[in-house]
């Protein structure tokens, strides 16, 4: 299977679907309301189907569902996700009165770790979660070289994630392997800085960068 499945059709899922399709990749979006998405879709050509069928279509699945519900949603799909690579780009935060991230849902852990524990036959890789969604597929437009992190226990799954990152425009030099999936708790904590950054930068694309 050469297609890439994206679960979730919000801003993150849509941005990734557009960018990967424009890069020449075959994209399948899995959503609970496929007919509604087909009717409203205005981007480049993709396939839209239900979640079960979308997972079945690809060996690589990107989780772009809300992080605070991802573990519950995907645990229910454990059998379908068995043997696949799951690229998790989510963050799980509580919401403050202003609707912005106010705290971490999984203090002392992370969505990435909990997904890997719940899906032992799936290789989970955490990446792309330290930036605004609009920068995920256009890193070259940023004013300085950004950094994208990878956390995961399976080296082959990380190679698949790197291939997708390359298709999205990420230079190999910008990719930083942090180690096992437990390192995802550090990158997920970056979400707590996002409200302050949005207050300063607005919704202009931004990403974390490590100067070396």
Describe the overall structure.
With 212 residues, the protein is an alpha/beta fold. The protein has one domain (4-201): NAD(P)-binding Rossmann-like Domain (Rossmann fold, 3-Layer(aba) Sandwich). Helix content is 34%, strand content 19%. Helix 4 (67-75) runs parallel beside helix 6.
Descriptive keywords:
Rossmann fold; alpha/beta; globular; 212 residues
Topology, please?
Layout lengths: L3 E4 L3 H12 L4 E4 L3 H7 L6 E3 L1 H7 L2 E4 L3 H9 L2 H4 L3 E4 L4 E3 L5 E4 L6 H8 L4 E4 L21 E5 L2 H13 L7 E5 L4 H5 L5 H8 L11
Parallel strand pairs: 1-2, 1-4, 2-3, 4-5, 5-8, 9-10
Antiparallel strand pairs: 6-7, 8-9
Short description:
The protein is α/β, with parallel strands linked by helices and 212 residues long. Helices cover 34% and strands 19% of the residues.
Q: Tell me the β content.
A: 15-25%
Radius of gyration: 16 Å
- How many independent structural domains? 1
Q: How many DSSP E strands? A: 10
Helix content: 25-40%
Using the 3D structure, state the CATH architecture: 3-Layer(aba) Sandwich
Give the structural class.
alpha/beta
CATH fold-level assignment: Rossmann fold
The geometry reads as: globular
């Amino acid at each position: 299977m050469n297609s890439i499945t994206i679960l979730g059709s919000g801003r993150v899922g849509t941005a990734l679907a557009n960018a990967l399709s424009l890069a020449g990749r075959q994209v399948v979006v899995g959503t609970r309301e496929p007919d509604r998405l087909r009717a409203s879709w205005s981007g480049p050509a993709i396939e839209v189907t239900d979640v079960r069928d979308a997972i079945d279509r690809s060996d690589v699945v990107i989780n772009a569902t809300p992080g605070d519900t991802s573990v519950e949603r995907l645990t229910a799909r454990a059998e379908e996700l068995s043997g696949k690579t799951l690229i998790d780009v989510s963050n799980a935060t509580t919401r403050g009165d202003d609707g912005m991230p106010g705290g971490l849902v999984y203090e002392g852990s992370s969505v990435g770790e909990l997904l890997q524990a719940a899906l032992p036959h799936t290789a989970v890789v955490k990446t792309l979660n330290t930036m605004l969604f609009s920068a995920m597929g256009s890193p070259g437009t940023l004013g300085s070289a950004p950094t994208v992190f990878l956390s995961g226990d399976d080296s082959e799954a990380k190679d698949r994630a790197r291939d997708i990152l390359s298709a999205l425009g990420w230079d190999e030099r910008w990719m930083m392997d942090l180690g096992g999936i437990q390192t995802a708790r550090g990158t997920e904590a970056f979400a707590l800085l996002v409200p302050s950054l949005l207050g300063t930068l607005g919704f202009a694309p931004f990403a974390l960068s490590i100067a070396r």
